[in-house]
Amino acid sequence: MSGSESGNESGNGTGTGTFVGMPAFPRAAHDAVNDQTLRGNLRHATHTIRAKRAKAVAEVSDWAALRDAGKRIKDHTLRHLDRYLEQLEESVTAAGGTVHWAADADEANRIVAQLVKETGESEVVKVKSMATQEIGLNEALLAEGIHAYETDLAELIVQLGKDRPSHILVPAIHRNRSEIRDIFRSEMGSWGRPAPEGLTDTPAELAEAARLHLREKFLRAKVGVSGANFMVAETGTLVVVESEGNGRMCLTLPETLISVVGIEKIVPTWRDLEVFLQTLPRSSTAERMNPYTSMWTGTTDEDGPRAFHLVLLDNGRTDTLADEVGRQALRCIRCSACLNVCPVYERAGGHAYGSVYPGPIGAILSPQLRGTQSEIDASLPYASSLCGACYEVCPVAIDIPEVLVHLRERVVEGGEVIRQGNKVVLRPAKGHAAERAAMRAARWAFTHPAALRTGQRLASRTRRLQPRTLPGPGRAWSGTRDLPALPKEPFRDWWQRTRTRGGSKEGSK
Amino acid sequence: MSSRERILGRVRRALADVRGDDTPYEQAVPREYLREHGDRSVEQTVELLAENLADYRAIVHRCTAPELPAVIARLLAERGSASVLVPPGLDEGRLAATDVPRIADRAESTPEELDRVGSVVTACAVAVAETGTLVLDAAPDQGRRRITLVPDHHICVVRVPDQVVSSVPQALERLDPARPLTWISGPSATSDIELDRVEGVHGPRTLEVVLVSAG
Ligand code: SF4
User: Fold this and answer.
1) Distance in angstroms (rounded) separating the CA atoms of residues B9 and A357
2) A66 to chain B: closest CA residue
3) Ligand 1: which atom is nearest the Cα of residue A333?
4) Do B188 and A153 touch (CB under 8 A)?
5) Residue A81: which of B11, B25, B169 has the nearest Cβ?
6) How far from A335 is each of A2, A7, A278, A280, B43, CA to CA, in Å?
7) Residue of B210, B165, B209, B131 lying closest to A292 (CA atoms)
8) The pTM is what?
9) What is the rounded (10 degree) CA torsion for A73, A76, A80, A81?
10) Which of A18, A364, B195, B209 has its CA at a distance of 20 to 30 angstroms from the CA of residue B152?
11) In which element (H, E) is residue A123 found?
């Protein structure tokens, strides 16, 4: 399904709702699993990155120590987040920047729209940012008459295709080259410079078409909008890690730069970057180092933007922080390694998660940021086989299976949670959506042999985390899991579909 | 209540269970990782830099200081550049052997003007061997950040071995966070289309690195 430009986010007041009309995970996953093109693209992509990543990590003999340091730096920061936020504000201000605080998506959008209006401009160029996507900034700006142009190649593909990103790192991973050519041919013209005549589907030609199309925008842009990978409390430095140079374009050519960053992205000291600049690229694009990293501290005379605004975004992060088990999700550095190893993500694709954060991290982060009231959020903790592969690759050692089990219990048993800073008591889900969701997720995952194979490892892994059988939908899950026999019919169907007809198609990619 | 107070208040309430934790930062973060991977001689470190730069598709040249002007002249000629951007503090002598017209790095140049320039020649602040990375810190011999971004051809001169470090931790030690920093590892690249790597979507498509020894 393709939502309209302004219809990607539901208007539930916070701007962080599920994508409009998005079916809950099992249903969406079911549809995705039946989409051969999508599955072929995904399989090719995740397997390629996965193999490369393992190689890049193997090059670094102290990986375990780096991972441990990354985890501890982030944990320490989160445990003293108030102090580091204040320190960051002080150092950014001292360096010539202006700091704004946004409690939720609406407030962040209002602040950014106001800042853009003050420049007198009605266009902004954007470097890919999950935070701005989370708050639905593009749509909010459009409602104020401001056009936001995504400049990352994949984001451009997504934006032109009136589509949604499906992967943290390669948002258009669900599109293959001929689809991209078709989108460029039919859509570029209405956004700016049209695609060149006779554009073919070779990646080099497609990239060149994007270069020409976007250069026009960069060169005249007066306002840039970004996120950031890290913010250094001690120095006020912001860091953006990227490959294409569109980040550098947005960060240095405009006169005004507005960065919207989640409050959890802080590291205490300059030195801490030495850990993440080693672990992030290798976990993410499987490179020793990504092509470009930009670091800036406030403003610099005659180099780069004259005005710099930092919008610090809460939008559910403090609620997540209040959960002693779940808060570890805030360590995430958005490398996407967990997506690429997840057997469920590989089949279902990013859209099935119904949020900007797909895959295993999305399954734990989205329901925490948004609550578990909606059907999709209640089903997300079940969007996993609990195989533990995500935990193993995570460069900040987030125990995703542990948080998943914790969130399942919360959905099933209810209890106290913090929503927008206030205590609320969740009623146990009963009857009902969550149970149906769990049943379907289980059935679906178990028609898949790789998920099952890895899933069997989970029995020992998670036993220490939970009673042998979970209550409610969990019981359905653990019951299914312990059964050695597969449902014959669905499995055969699956095998037929994917290994015979579909198999040759995938193999040719 | 301002949003600032609201958010900080929520953070403090959320951390009620850790309020008593006064573990200082230094103890909370033991650093057992390495300062450098492997045990290399200075020459081997420079060699590794050259290898890793080339692995990420930068074109690497090596020469001695007296040879540098000729190398730069040759690279500009091979490229067929009609003009070359020069940061204000770049040693004039480096361009002594070429008559390609110079364009100054000026605050008032428009991005369109930069877009018409053929090549840019800069120095760097530090180069990281293990990752094949050049770091520019906008010093006078490197110029504003945008001059190494908009033109399609960047020639970067690295003094070896004194500007070369082994690792990311060693590089950060040498850098000043107050300056705007650009870390460059190979030319601009994308893998967004079916994960095929394509050079140059937005930044320079050709990165040439000249490793200069005192000679
Ligand atoms: S949870 Fe870990 S592996 Fe997944 S994106 Fe975040 S940091 Fe990467």
Assistant:
1) 26
2) B33
3) 7
4) no
5) B11
6) 26, 27, 12, 6, 34
7) B131
8) 0.86
9) 40
10) B195
11) strand A123-126
CB-defined site of ligand 1, < 6 Å: A 283, 332-338, 361, 393-396, 398
Q: Residue A288 and residue B56: Cβ atoms within 8 Å? A: yes
pLDDT digits (tens, 9 = 90+) for B119-167: 999 999 999 999 999 999 999 999 999 999 999 999 999 999 999 999 9
CA distance A455 to A384: 9
B102 strand-pairing partners: B84
Residues A181-184: contacts with CB within 8 Å, 24+ apart? Answer: A181/A206, A183/A157, A184/A157, A184/A160, A184/A209, A184/A210, A184/A213
Cα distance between residue A295 and residue A237, in whole Å: 6
CB A248 within 8 A of CB A294: yes
| Chain A residue with minimum CA distance to B24 | A76
**Are A66 and A477 in contact, with CB atoms under 8 Å apart?**
no
Torsion over CA: B205, A52, A265, B184 (sign):
negative
Choose the residue to mutate in A229, A285, A334, A355 for probing ligand 1, maximizing ligand atoms within 8 Å of C-beta: A334
HSE-CB at B142 with a 13 A cutoff on CA atoms is 23
Residue B140 CA to ligand 1 center (angstroms) comes to 39
User: Which has the closest alpha carbon to A337: A41, A73, A64, A50?
Assistant: A50
pLDDT digits 0-9 by tens, A188-210? 998 889 999 999 999 889 989 99
pLDDT of residue A168: 74
Please indicate whether, in this complex, the C-beta atoms of B195 and A172 are within 8 angstroms of each other: no
Buried b (16+ CB within 10 A) or exposed e, A120-134: ebeebbbbbbbbbbb
Burial of B27 (C-beta count, 10 Å sphere; 0-12/13-18/19+): exposed
Query: Which backbone phi and psi does B153 adopt, to 5 degrees?
Result: -135, 115
Of A41, A281, A291, the CB nearest to B188: A291
Query: A248, A263, A330: which to substitute to probe chain B, counting the most B Cβ within 10 Å?
Result: A248
C-alpha dist (Å) from residue A362 to A40, A51, A158, B79: 22, 22, 19, 47
pLDDT of residue A291: 93
Instruction: Tell if the CB–CB gap between A314 and B8 is shorter than 8 Å.
Output: no
Tell how far CA A95 is from the center of its chain: 30
Q: Which of A23-27, B9-13, B59-63 has the lowest mean pLDDT?
A: A23-27
Contacts of B3 (CB under 8 A, 6+ apart): A101, A102, A103, A107, A314
Determine which residue's CA is closest to atom 4 belonging to ligand 1.
A338
Contact A210/B201, CB-based, under 8 Å? yes
**Which residue of chain A has the CA closest to B137?**
A295
